[in-house]
Amino acid sequence: MTLTAGSRLGPYEILAAIGAGGMGEVYRARDTRLERTVALKVLPEHLTSDPDLRQRFEREAKTISQISHPHICALYDVGREGDRDYLVMEYLEGETLAARLDKGALPSEQLLRYGIEIADALDKAHRQGIVHRDLKPGNVMLTKSGVKLLDFGLAKFQAAARDKGLSGVSVLATEAQKSQPLTERGTVLGTFQYMAPEQLEGGEADARSDIFAFGAVLYEMATGRKAFSGKSQASLAGSILRDDPTSVTEIAPMIPPAVNRVVKTCLAKDPEDRFQTAHDVKLQLQWIAEGGSQAGLPAPVAARRKSRERLAWGVAAAALLAAAALGFGFVRRAPAKPRAVRFEIVPPEGVIAIDAPRISPDGRYLAFNATDSEGKTRIWVRPLNALAAQPLNGTEGSARPFWSPDSRFLGFIAEGKLKKIEVTGGPAQKICDAPTGADGSWSSQGVILFDGTGKDPIYRVPAGGGTPAVAVRTETSGKDGQVGWPEFLPDGRHFLFMAIGVKPEDSAYRVGSIDSTDSKPFAPAQTLVTFAPPGYLLFVRDKTLVAQRFDPKAVRTQGEPVPLAEHIGTDSVGLATFSVSRDGTLAYRTGDSGARLLWVDRSGKELDALGDRGEYSNPKLSLAGDRLVFDLNDPRSGKSDIWIRDLARGVNSRFTFGDGNNGVPIWSPDGATVVFRSDRNGNYDLFEKPASGQGEEKILLKSAEQKFACDWSRDGRYISYASQNQKSGWDAWALPTFGDRKPVPIVAGPFNQLMPVFSPDARFVAYQSNESGRAEIYVQSFPVASGKWQVSSSGGTDPSWSSDGKTLYYRAADQKLTAVEIQAEESFKAGIPRPLFAARVQPGVARNKYAVSGNGERFLFVAPLGREALTPTTVVLNWGAELGR
């Protein structure tokens, strides 16, 4: 009888069933003594009367208990409750290698890393005289800490006498019976597709049998195909005994050729011809991973000619030789057409968030922004003929890098400055001041275009440095809300950009020129657009990356868009996670949009996540701490709206409806009203609405400037907000809720002053400013500016007061959440900044990054989904071949 949730075996409480095989049931359970989650493997009741099976159960437990290794699932306990025998094992979160391979082959980095870990685990077991006998993808679990080998249930001691009376499936097998149709009681031990010839022939299996199975697993990891196949057990067994699988590099050209030699040696029919130990296999894989030889590099990239000519002809030659082997005679066949070659690049180790990939114009490098577990965001560069990406020092705080036309430099914006840096490293060089979060394009004429945020125009500036000039104004059309995503055309003078309308149907692609601020529309738009030689536009439509013919001289699209890839990541202002090079290399990322609303304590320990993942931003807690208000972007429409979460009930309710983007909400002190910004009328203005949801959304402040609310003083008299001055940048303002309600400046000037927040007694305002050359936290007396103090010492953004006003929190330049004690009874005095923990914040331009609980013991962050949710970057060589599919 299957155990139900809540039942117990000894001190273990059953939580849920995980799976069942022919001879074992597996449950997730709680160890009530040590308060940890474990996995219980139970011999089913209908088999407890079989003494032989009982003995095997005990023998397998002893086998596993003798192995202690970081990549082998650990055994914690053995028990018996009534007539039930069970093992208590390490509970693993992740997916099996079999589940991962259902999605396709692994990229080189993952293949080598996992392969090394599997080999190391096998070596440990073999040195203790234990043979797995059933190594396969279903018995390999992929976890955050690496692989874990499962089910040494078919293992045996080499020095012990074999139980000749029993053969068959392990009593510990956890996979569903349908996945093991060839492993029955009374047959050979193992799973056919991964069994060595000597096992099929009923011979003695030793460590080299595991090595054969490991070779079959490596083959499947590299190619996405099984090494051997057959329509029946007999034909499958015959294939294993007789055939050699197709070369790894013929199926997967980007896999290092040396991997093929390792796989081929593992799969030798004669055990004497295989690697003799798993340690030898591990050393070979480590040598490849460390780049020990040119044999370890993918042949198509290492042998790159001026274009993809050698790759294309190499693929064609392979196809012709295959035809010859089938007896068709390649002399009489026309050369095969060049085909597209795909491979994946996984995010670097330690990275928890990654931005859109940027392929270099010559197709040699991939650049991307990535955030590590310490919250530090930098540009990383991966040469396509190498196995690892490296961070570029000096690019901290960057956003969306772009390439110089000769592929030597990367342009980026950080700390309010447009900079450039050589791809090989070195100091970053300032070009000019620029708004943080902008995107750019670098022409062959030595001109850089960059956009901004909100109603910023598109600027142009010489790549060598200078004063920016307006290239495109936001007033290009009465319907245009924003302009952005500039992209130069091949002539270096004309460029494409996206005009983002208030309504999605008003957005359009336009073409402009560096010789004029005029532009004209030529097609409707949803995301950024990229020109790809010889004459295509690439863009995303309804989450699908498409290519459409384009005449750059006539500025006219031709024909219908052709789909290239689905589920491309996008956002509400046109970002799309793809790029393309001049030489026909395409890079893109799919999925993983969104973040978590995550509670952490004062040490940074994760506590609870609120709701499902989503594209959250700008969380604000009510003063009573019972409700949370935030933005939530709809990935389908690209439109953001405000939602309110009842923290006691755990229920989210949509708060805003209608046209435009609604966001950056704040609470009134009594929790009765929410103020937010909306661009429904073309400009970002401030609106208010009763928090109950009943009542109109009324305009609170309308002006020509972009703006967003930051705080509402506890006495209810002032609403602070940031307003963008087109000439001088961002200023901090206060909107009185009494009298004539005329806004008054808090801090205004030639610098960016953002995020003004009131102290609980409304005597002070904390804000961030870059007046020193980088963002720092300042406090100024209010409402009369009679005093001003710098609080941060090493950079700071996003200030937030504790509920008693005795602590000021902010994010330092190293992304650590920092606390400063404040004394302000008689005069203002700030203590020494004290780092609390590395803040894991979702990258982006959200204004409010976190919220502080009333007692200051918990912090709510919009946090990245984590490394386990990151998707790899797909690289397509000769992507144009996809158009003819």
Describe this structure in words.
The structure is a single chain. The protein is mainly β and 885 residues long. It folds into three domains: 8-249 and 256-293, Transferase(Phosphotransferase), domain 1; 345-593, TolB, C-terminal domain (Neuraminidase), CATH 2.120.10.30; 706-839, 6 Propeller (Neuraminidase). It is built from eleven helices and 58 strands. A hairpin with a 4-residue loop joins strand 30 and strand 31 (556-565). Helix 3 (108-127) runs antiparallel to helix 9 (278-289) and helix 8 (257-266) packs antiparallel against helix 9. It is globular, with a radius of gyration of 31 Å. It starts with 7 loop residues before the first strand and ends in an 8-residue tail after the last strand. Residues 154-189 and 292-335 have low confidence and may be disordered.
State the gist of this model.
The protein has 885 residues and is mainly beta. 13% of the residues lie in helices and 38% in strands.
Keywords:
single chain, 885 residues, Transferase(Phosphotransferase), domain 1, Neuraminidase
**Alpha carbon gap, first and last residue:** 53 Å
CATH superfamily of the largest domain: Transferase(Phosphotransferase) domain 1
Could you list the spans in which at least 5 consecutive residues all have pLDDT below 50? Answer: 154-189, 292-335
The major sheet is characterized as: 7 strands, antiparallel
Give the number of domains: 3
> Major sheet: order of its strands?
38-37-36-35-34-57-56
Taken from the alpha-carbon principal axes, the silhouette is globular
Tell me what portion of residues adopts beta-strand conformation: 35-45%
CATH-derived topology of the largest domain: Transferase(Phosphotransferase), domain 1
